[in-house]
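Dear U.,

For the methods section draft, I wanted the exact inputs and outputs in one place so we can describe them consistently. I've listed the two proteins in the order they'll appear in the manuscript figures. Please don't edit the token lines directly; just add comments below if something needs changing.

First protein:
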Amino acid sequence: MNADKNRELVEGEDFYIENGLYVFTREYLLKRGFCCQSGCRHCPYGFVKSNQQPLSEKNSK
């Protein structure tokens, strides 16, 4: 088996907690290797749910 699949997540490296929710980092999502199409905040694959504003629009306000 792949050792990365059994590795525990590291807070601050793989995720952080915001308002009681786990937020995965871009680095973790890249290591995972695929887009889950859930609209992750730091999605490195460019996926945006249809009811979300793209990150570039959020930052320009």
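Second protein (the one for the lower panel):
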Amino acid sequence: EKLERMNQLTTVMRTYVPTIKLVSLTTETDLTEQIVQKRQLLDKNRMEQSLGRNLQRLRKYEKKLVEEIQELKRAEQERPDLSFFFIIEGKTIKDLQTRNRQLMRSSGILGLKPLYKKELIKILYRMNNMNDE
């Protein structure tokens, strides 16, 4: 899969004719949703334990869930998320839209997504204030 993505990235860089920049940024990893889901499973498990069914199996499952939550918290603190962004330029909005479509077509399996204004503002802020966390 990594090789396919690298080949696709190489293809994009060769076939996309207009000026393009590739920027990489590290950001904090946000695993809040996964942690919340694991906590919900843990609460459900504890509820079942209070009913007294399959206690031994449920205790093992609880231990596993607690370990997974701790691992997610550790990953959130220790592993930054590496993201890549293509920057394209255009003189007019129509030119920019055309180049955007061209980039999306040539990107193939990379799974590029356009950024919404709010996300774009955050990224531009990060790019211009690298020491500000």
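Candidate sentences for the figure legend, describing the second protein: Residues 25 and 83 are 5 Å apart (CA to CA). The longest helix spans residues 55-78.

Thanks,
Y.
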